[in-house]
Amino acid sequence: MVDLSGNVAAVRRRIEAACQRAGRSSDEVTIVAVSKTRSPAEIEAAYACGLRHFGENRVEEAEVKIPEVTRRLGDGITWHMVGHIQSRKAGRVAQLADVVHSVDSVKLAQRLDRAAAEADRVIPVLLECNVSGEASKYGFDAATGQAGSGLAEAAREILACGHLRLRGLMTMAPIADDPETVRPVFARLRALRDALQEGAPDLELSELSMGMTDDFEVAVEEGATIVRIGRAIFGPAVY
Ligand SMILES: *Cc1c(COP(=O)(O)O)cnc(C)c1O
After folding, report:
1. Residue 203, φ and ψ in degrees, nearest 5
2. Distance from the CA of 202 to the center of ligand 1, in angstroms?
3. Which has the closest alpha carbon to 34: 64, 6, 67, 61?
4. Which of 10, 35, 161, 232 is buried most, with the most CB atoms less than 10 Å from its CB?
5. The pTM is what?
Protein backbone atom coordinates (compact mmCIF):
# COMPACT_ATOMS: atom_id res chain seq x y z
CA MET A 1 0.00 0.00 0.00
CA VAL A 2 1.13 3.48 -0.86
CA ASP A 3 1.28 5.84 2.12
CA LEU A 4 -0.43 8.75 0.41
CA SER A 5 -0.62 11.05 3.40
CA GLY A 6 3.04 10.37 4.22
CA ASN A 7 3.96 11.07 0.60
CA VAL A 8 2.00 14.30 0.49
CA ALA A 9 3.52 15.44 3.78
CA ALA A 10 7.01 14.66 2.48
CA VAL A 11 6.41 16.59 -0.75
CA ARG A 12 5.14 19.57 1.24
CA ARG A 13 8.20 19.44 3.52
CA ARG A 14 10.56 19.30 0.57
CA ILE A 15 8.82 22.26 -1.11
CA GLU A 16 8.98 24.19 2.15
CA ALA A 17 12.72 23.51 2.47
CA ALA A 18 13.36 24.51 -1.16
CA CYS A 19 11.38 27.71 -0.61
CA GLN A 20 13.44 28.49 2.46
CA ARG A 21 16.68 28.02 0.54
CA ALA A 22 15.38 30.40 -2.13
CA GLY A 23 13.92 32.95 0.26
CA ARG A 24 10.39 32.29 -0.99
CA SER A 25 7.11 31.58 0.72
CA SER A 26 5.63 28.13 0.10
CA ASP A 27 2.26 29.85 -0.35
CA GLU A 28 3.59 30.79 -3.78
CA VAL A 29 3.80 27.15 -4.87
CA THR A 30 0.77 25.14 -5.93
CA ILE A 31 1.00 21.36 -6.03
CA VAL A 32 -0.76 19.79 -8.98
CA ALA A 33 -1.12 16.08 -8.28
CA VAL A 34 -0.73 14.44 -11.68
CA SER A 35 -3.33 11.69 -11.54
CA LYS A 36 -2.91 10.13 -14.97
CA THR A 37 -3.36 6.33 -14.78
CA ARG A 38 -4.65 6.67 -11.20
CA SER A 39 -8.17 5.60 -10.28
CA PRO A 40 -10.92 7.87 -8.98
CA ALA A 41 -10.45 6.14 -5.59
CA GLU A 42 -6.78 7.15 -5.53
CA ILE A 43 -7.72 10.71 -6.44
CA GLU A 44 -10.27 10.68 -3.64
CA ALA A 45 -7.58 9.53 -1.19
CA ALA A 46 -5.28 12.33 -2.33
CA TYR A 47 -8.13 14.80 -1.93
CA ALA A 48 -8.54 13.59 1.63
CA CYS A 49 -4.88 14.57 2.18
CA GLY A 50 -5.80 18.15 1.32
CA LEU A 51 -4.85 18.27 -2.37
CA ARG A 52 -7.23 20.30 -4.53
CA HIS A 53 -5.38 20.57 -7.84
CA PHE A 54 -5.16 17.54 -10.11
CA GLY A 55 -3.57 17.11 -13.51
CA GLU A 56 -4.41 14.79 -16.39
CA ASN A 57 -2.47 14.30 -19.59
CA ARG A 58 -4.87 12.41 -21.89
CA VAL A 59 -8.20 13.76 -23.05
CA GLU A 60 -9.84 10.32 -23.26
CA GLU A 61 -8.88 9.48 -19.70
CA ALA A 62 -9.88 12.89 -18.36
CA GLU A 63 -13.27 12.60 -20.03
CA VAL A 64 -14.05 9.50 -18.00
CA LYS A 65 -12.40 10.40 -14.71
CA ILE A 66 -13.27 14.06 -14.20
CA PRO A 67 -17.06 13.54 -14.27
CA GLU A 68 -16.73 10.50 -12.02
CA VAL A 69 -14.55 12.27 -9.45
CA THR A 70 -16.86 15.29 -9.59
CA ARG A 71 -19.82 13.00 -8.84
CA ARG A 72 -18.02 11.65 -5.79
CA LEU A 73 -16.41 14.80 -4.43
CA GLY A 74 -18.28 17.75 -5.87
CA ASP A 75 -16.65 20.50 -7.87
CA GLY A 76 -14.00 21.66 -5.39
CA ILE A 77 -11.15 20.38 -7.56
CA THR A 78 -9.26 22.49 -10.07
CA TRP A 79 -8.42 20.30 -13.06
CA HIS A 80 -5.24 20.96 -15.01
CA MET A 81 -4.59 19.56 -18.48
CA VAL A 82 -0.85 19.02 -18.66
CA GLY A 83 -0.36 16.72 -21.68
CA HIS A 84 -0.14 17.39 -25.40
CA ILE A 85 -3.53 18.13 -26.96
CA GLN A 86 -4.38 17.49 -30.59
CA SER A 87 -6.21 20.52 -31.97
CA ARG A 88 -9.24 18.44 -32.93
CA LYS A 89 -9.74 17.62 -29.23
CA ALA A 90 -9.75 21.27 -28.16
CA GLY A 91 -13.53 21.31 -27.80
CA ARG A 92 -13.49 18.50 -25.27
CA VAL A 93 -10.63 20.06 -23.33
CA ALA A 94 -12.48 23.38 -23.13
CA GLN A 95 -15.33 21.59 -21.37
CA LEU A 96 -13.14 19.61 -18.97
CA ALA A 97 -10.11 21.63 -17.94
CA ASP A 98 -9.95 24.59 -15.58
CA VAL A 99 -6.35 25.37 -16.55
CA VAL A 100 -4.45 24.25 -19.67
CA HIS A 101 -0.65 24.01 -19.27
CA SER A 102 0.14 22.52 -22.65
CA VAL A 103 -0.73 25.17 -25.23
CA ASP A 104 2.00 24.46 -27.76
CA SER A 105 0.69 26.10 -30.92
CA VAL A 106 -1.32 29.14 -31.95
CA LYS A 107 -3.69 26.82 -33.81
CA LEU A 108 -4.49 24.93 -30.62
CA ALA A 109 -4.97 28.20 -28.73
CA GLN A 110 -7.41 29.49 -31.33
CA ARG A 111 -9.42 26.28 -31.29
CA LEU A 112 -9.49 26.29 -27.49
CA ASP A 113 -10.62 29.90 -27.57
CA ARG A 114 -13.51 29.16 -29.91
CA ALA A 115 -14.57 26.16 -27.84
CA ALA A 116 -14.31 28.12 -24.61
CA ALA A 117 -16.52 30.81 -26.13
CA GLU A 118 -19.10 28.19 -27.06
CA ALA A 119 -18.96 26.74 -23.56
CA ASP A 120 -19.22 30.26 -22.14
CA ARG A 121 -15.96 29.80 -20.23
CA VAL A 122 -12.72 31.74 -19.84
CA ILE A 123 -9.76 29.40 -19.48
CA PRO A 124 -6.38 30.28 -17.95
CA VAL A 125 -3.60 28.92 -20.15
CA LEU A 126 0.16 28.50 -20.07
CA LEU A 127 2.41 28.28 -23.10
CA GLU A 128 4.50 25.13 -23.17
CA CYS A 129 8.12 25.79 -24.06
CA ASN A 130 10.67 23.31 -25.32
CA VAL A 131 13.64 24.77 -23.52
CA SER A 132 16.03 21.86 -23.89
CA GLY A 133 15.55 21.53 -27.65
CA GLU A 134 14.87 17.80 -27.44
CA ALA A 135 13.11 16.68 -30.62
CA SER A 136 10.78 14.45 -28.58
CA LYS A 137 9.32 17.39 -26.69
CA TYR A 138 6.33 19.53 -27.56
CA GLY A 139 6.26 23.27 -27.07
CA PHE A 140 7.42 26.51 -28.55
CA ASP A 141 11.07 26.29 -29.47
CA ALA A 142 12.95 28.22 -26.85
CA ALA A 143 16.31 26.52 -27.30
CA THR A 144 17.53 28.30 -30.39
CA GLY A 145 17.19 31.56 -32.20
CA GLN A 146 16.46 34.89 -30.64
CA ALA A 147 15.37 35.00 -27.04
CA GLY A 148 11.93 33.47 -27.33
CA SER A 149 10.95 35.35 -30.47
CA GLY A 150 8.47 32.74 -31.72
CA LEU A 151 7.08 32.68 -28.22
CA ALA A 152 6.47 36.43 -28.10
CA GLU A 153 4.71 36.23 -31.45
CA ALA A 154 2.51 33.40 -30.21
CA ALA A 155 1.79 35.24 -26.98
CA ARG A 156 0.56 38.24 -28.97
CA GLU A 157 -1.82 36.07 -30.98
CA ILE A 158 -3.10 34.38 -27.87
CA LEU A 159 -3.81 37.73 -26.27
CA ALA A 160 -6.33 38.27 -29.02
CA CYS A 161 -8.19 35.16 -27.83
CA GLY A 162 -10.96 36.65 -25.71
CA HIS A 163 -11.81 33.43 -23.90
CA LEU A 164 -8.26 32.49 -22.90
CA ARG A 165 -6.18 34.17 -20.21
CA LEU A 166 -2.46 33.83 -20.71
CA ARG A 167 -0.99 33.35 -17.23
CA GLY A 168 2.58 32.12 -17.80
CA LEU A 169 4.81 29.36 -19.11
CA MET A 170 5.28 25.63 -18.66
CA THR A 171 8.14 23.27 -19.44
CA MET A 172 9.24 19.70 -18.98
CA ALA A 173 12.93 19.24 -18.24
CA PRO A 174 14.88 16.36 -19.78
CA ILE A 175 15.14 13.22 -17.69
CA ALA A 176 18.38 13.37 -15.71
CA ASP A 177 19.97 11.35 -12.92
CA ASP A 178 21.09 14.51 -11.16
CA PRO A 179 18.43 17.25 -11.05
CA GLU A 180 21.17 19.88 -10.80
CA THR A 181 21.88 19.31 -14.47
CA VAL A 182 18.43 20.62 -15.43
CA ARG A 183 18.61 23.76 -13.31
CA PRO A 184 19.52 25.88 -16.38
CA VAL A 185 16.30 24.71 -18.09
CA PHE A 186 14.22 26.13 -15.27
CA ALA A 187 16.28 29.31 -15.06
CA ARG A 188 15.78 29.76 -18.79
CA LEU A 189 12.00 29.37 -18.56
CA ARG A 190 11.93 32.01 -15.89
CA ALA A 191 14.05 34.36 -18.03
CA LEU A 192 11.70 33.79 -20.97
CA ARG A 193 8.75 34.63 -18.78
CA ASP A 194 10.48 37.75 -17.46
CA ALA A 195 11.19 38.90 -21.03
CA LEU A 196 7.59 38.32 -22.08
CA GLN A 197 6.34 40.12 -19.01
CA GLU A 198 8.56 43.08 -19.74
CA GLY A 199 7.10 43.33 -23.22
CA ALA A 200 3.54 43.16 -21.89
CA PRO A 201 3.38 45.00 -18.57
CA ASP A 202 -0.43 44.98 -18.58
CA LEU A 203 -0.51 41.18 -18.35
CA GLU A 204 -0.04 39.09 -15.25
CA LEU A 205 2.31 36.33 -16.35
CA SER A 206 2.83 35.12 -12.83
CA GLU A 207 2.83 31.36 -13.36
CA LEU A 208 5.80 29.08 -14.00
CA SER A 209 4.71 25.45 -14.24
CA MET A 210 7.92 23.47 -13.87
CA GLY A 211 9.23 20.62 -11.76
CA MET A 212 8.10 17.00 -11.47
CA THR A 213 8.93 14.14 -9.09
CA ASP A 214 12.61 14.01 -10.01
CA ASP A 215 13.36 17.71 -10.09
CA PHE A 216 10.73 19.77 -8.28
CA GLU A 217 13.01 21.11 -5.56
CA VAL A 218 15.40 22.61 -8.09
CA ALA A 219 12.41 24.02 -9.99
CA VAL A 220 11.07 25.66 -6.83
CA GLU A 221 14.49 27.16 -6.15
CA GLU A 222 14.36 28.61 -9.67
CA GLY A 223 10.92 30.15 -9.22
CA ALA A 224 8.28 27.50 -9.98
CA THR A 225 4.79 28.56 -8.91
CA ILE A 226 3.21 25.25 -9.97
CA VAL A 227 4.86 21.85 -9.58
CA ARG A 228 3.31 18.85 -11.34
CA ILE A 229 3.89 15.77 -9.24
CA GLY A 230 2.82 12.22 -9.95
CA ARG A 231 5.03 9.45 -8.56
CA ALA A 232 6.19 11.23 -5.40
CA ILE A 233 2.53 11.38 -4.36
CA PHE A 234 0.89 8.29 -5.85
CA GLY A 235 3.87 5.94 -5.91
CA PRO A 236 5.63 4.37 -8.91
CA ALA A 237 3.89 4.76 -12.26
CA VAL A 238 1.55 1.99 -13.31
CA TYR A 239 0.74 1.47 -16.99
C1 LIG B 1 3.29 12.57 -15.76
C2 LIG B 1 3.54 14.01 -15.84
C3 LIG B 1 4.01 14.73 -14.73
C4 LIG B 1 4.35 14.08 -13.40
O5 LIG B 1 5.43 13.21 -13.51
P6 LIG B 1 6.13 12.52 -12.24
O7 LIG B 1 7.53 12.35 -12.68
O8 LIG B 1 5.40 11.26 -11.99
O9 LIG B 1 6.03 13.46 -11.09
C10 LIG B 1 4.18 16.09 -14.87
N11 LIG B 1 3.91 16.73 -16.03
C12 LIG B 1 3.47 16.07 -17.11
C13 LIG B 1 3.19 16.85 -18.35
C14 LIG B 1 3.26 14.70 -17.06
O15 LIG B 1 2.81 14.06 -18.14
Report:
1. -90, 165
2. 31
3. 61
4. 35
5. 0.96
